[in-house]
Structure formats: structure tokens, C-alpha cells
Amino acid sequence: MALDKNNIIYRRLDEHEDIKCFDCGDEDLNDFIKNDAPLYYKSRLSTSYILEDKTTGEVIGYFSLAHDRISLTDFPSNSSYNRFRKKFFAQGKMFKSYPAIKICRLATSLNYRGEGIGSMIINMIIASYQQDNKAGCRFVTVDAYASALPFYYNQGFMPLSKEDEGADTRLLYFDLKQL
To answer: Out of the domains of life, which is the source (predicted)?
Structure first.
């Protein structure tokens, strides 16, 4: 289905909003936006945003964000954590963790696959944290499904360690300062 990207708006999902018509082909992701997203928002666990076609009101995609961190416990050893830390923070900055924003969920409607909606979402997230860094955020993280790894690699995300290689999900990061 062709989409005029000028007709796309994105907004925060209201805690009382009821999304009924959304299908991305993954039942877990469908269930989250239809049932769990408002509860997560109300509990202050994550905030979800929807992209919709302003001419039809159709939800074409969504994403959920939460605060995260990259810390020593994400690495198999102290030495691998220290290598990571020195790669990005050569001038000291020896914290036990570094601030990040986590992409908890990201989905595109089956009707709009191949239209670049996922890339648009990633670009929006990155731009918003680069331009409006209210509380300090260096990285974007995601626990990516194995099937979504090529998408995230194409967006510039990197694996945090080799420990989860071949697992169902893999912890990836994007350095916001690289741009």
C-alpha cells in the first residue's frame, strides 16, 4: 500500500486509548500495542508512540521507549567492559554504567512493509535524543529478535558482546555521539 509520508503523524499513545486494528504479523507485538502499552505507560515502565496516517487514522507503526543503561553486567568480563568503555570514553569517565534509551518494542503494520517506516522510526528516535538531550543519553539499545538483526545492523546498531550470538534475541547498541 503506497503511503504519502507527508501524511504521517506520530504522537504519544494516551493511557486510555484503545488500539484495536493493528497487525504487524507478530502476535506478541500486536498484543502489546492493543493491551499492554497503556498499562506500561500508567506504571511508568515505558512510553509508546504511534505513527498514523492523518488522512485515514490508520496506525501504521508504533514504538515503545524506556530508560536503560549499559553496564558491567552486560559484558562477559571486566576486561570486555573496560575495552568498550575505553573505546567511547578515552578521557576517563569511569562510571559503572552509561545512560541509554531502550527501544522496547518497534513494529510496522503488514500493510506498510517495505515503505521505510521502521527506518523512519529509528531516525526519529535518534534525532529526538540528539537534539533534545534533557537528561544525558549516550546510547540507544535494543534486545533485537534474531529475525530483526539485519534491519538493526542496517541502521548502524552494533552487538554489545559476542556472548548472545546465535540467541533468540541479541543486545545491540547505537552510539548517539557518532553522528
So the answer is: Bacteria
